[in-house]
Amino acid sequence: MDLYEYPPNLDLRKQAQEIPGSKKPGYSAVWKNGEISPSLRREARPHLTACGLAGIFPDDHVVRDQPATLFELFERSVAANADRPIMKWRTLLTPATPTQAAVFAPTLDAQLTYGDFGARRLNVGKALLRLENEGKLGSRAEGASAKPEYVDGANFAVGVWSLNRPEWQIVDFACHAFGLVGVALYDTLGPNVVEYVTNHAPLSIIVASANHIPTLLKNAPATPCLRYVVSMDKLAHQEHTILKAWAASVGVELWQMEELERYGREAVDVHPRPPTPEMPATISYTSGTTGNPKGVVLTHETVTKGIICQASGQGHALQHWTLMSYLPLAHILERSLELLAVASGGIIAYSTGDNLRLLEDAQIIKPDFFPSVPRVLNRLHQAVLAQAAAGGLKGALLQKALTAKIEHFKQTGEVTHRVYDALVFRKVRALLGGNVKIITTGSAPISPDVLLTLKACFSCDVIEGYGLTETVGGITLNIPFDTVGFKTAGHPRPGVLIKLKDVPELNYTSDDKPYPRGEVLIGGPVRLKCYHKDPENTAKAIDEEGWFHTGDIGVIDDCGRLKIIDRVKNVMKLSQGEYVALEKVEGIYGLHPLFASFLVHGDSLQSYIVLIGVVDPVQASQYIQKVLGKNVQPTDLAGMQKLLNDPKVRQHVLYELQMLAKKNGLNGFETVKGVWLEVEPFPAHILTPTLKMKRKQAAEHYREQIDNLYAEGEAVFERRPLGKL
Predict the structure, then answer these.
(1) DSSP readout, 490-528?
(2) 380 pLDDT above the threshold of 60
(3) Chain centre to alpha carbon of residue 20
(4) Is 335 helix (H, G, I), strand (E, B) or coil?
(5) CA within 13 Å, CB half, 722
């Protein structure tokens, strides 16, 4: 697949262009991928001179001479890379026990080539089709010979449930080759949601890691559609015997992965059944913060064009590159990036799946591409700032080097520095393996200060983008050398159309000055077909003209860059009538190094907002020492919890949060007036699988603490409270 670099001498003032005559009452004009000059067009890409109104990356390359389905995408790649590795990983040497962590090989000692991967996915696909042909996948409630329910009249759905690993992708690519519909279950889903998705899709067969098999069998009486459960892991003899008997007792067949692949190898008369572009490729269940998740139906055409569009601007990094896979594969961000890696002949290197080993994994994998999310990058940022503030010669040198490199980037757009990279930042780069060329972030807002600091530290592009499950991930992206654009989500990618819809009740309109503001609407080929079995929400999300309504509030600047500033549904009204955008203020308070995670809460019966914060134990230990002069070890969670909510500690934290708010221009009603600190992480039931907050459930869980904060009354500090600091 062709990869496009940004052309040299790009005019950063024209990153997107208005389509003439497209503005309508209540809406902004329609924006598309930006125009470049005819001279640049000839010099940089002479084969595109006849494209007319070409963009930075011409829209027509999304369809011209490119694969139309995910099956075609892989077939092209395997033909060019059959003997090259597609996946690498560390072998598990000793499984974890209640008292001992798992032991993995110290190197990427296992791998799979494109050719071998292709053969295995065909065997799995043939097995799945053979099971259907033999009448073994119909609902138990409808009799043994019943046919499985088809998704959108196209074909049946296949579930996969595990941490990121090769078998996950083998099953998914098998679906691509045989026109089946892949459905990912999040590894952190509770049994109720697994049951819901199994019935809703529905899923006749689920391929899962061994640890999830008991949950699937417990659910079986309530999921009559489920006929087969396949273990990715080889089960010990006694475990296999017990689980197989349990499965039989609830009317389910239990197989192991090797059985499924053998069943396919024996099916000599079964052949690939390639999909057409309009057929559904996947139902991607969104990690909703309220109610049951919605099933986003994405066609082969939509996903394939989304992957091609994401290749634009990454040619400098994506030639035989290594992607570190640790973000959840069931989330569209990771899934689309792994598809991009495969399409461009790259290598997917799987982490151990243990977040505590993240840096260890990175140092062994040595990735070129490190996709990430704000919570991970914020922790790296805090660690760097802590070193710079530590004092001494090393701290002073790091601070000087950071200041110099950030200023150098602002002046030149370059992320390297001949002196400081060798003298200071070589060791910092080694934290992520020393080979990182590009770091991307999405899923939530991130501070521009974090992006700048990490650009300097890792001497690589650190790029923010914007996208949703419904748009196959990223649809806008920063240009790496744009010295102002790092404060935005960047320009529209090829084939993507963007316009803004007025939201007058929140005072956002397309006529706002200096730039139009409103709800972000997405047009073009890179959007969902529908929500599965949900015409009501489909009609709400996709209007009569085919525009997808994201629910995000954005602004488009004079260079054509999109910036997300709010969320329609995450805005709450305080008792005095002021509106607070909770995600916006959380983006500011997230700059405080004390927090590992936190929740800002507002109540329409109250006049101010409060914060529940989960602390980083190492940071909290140091903070308590500074404020109270008391020593508490990071491992002494009980002792730390007691000291954290000493009034003096809470007052100091609250003062610093209020100074952060003031520094970043928040209004008085956007400033937290109460804070409660916790050492225990947020429980799983108040978080989505992508770690977004379920605000209603979180408020219920912390109801006592929230009520106490409001009972204490609002606290405002104009100067630092008395204490050791």
Answers:
(1) BEEPTT-EEEEE-BGGGTB-TT-SSS-EEEEEEESSSS-
(2) yes
(3) 34
(4) helix
(5) 0
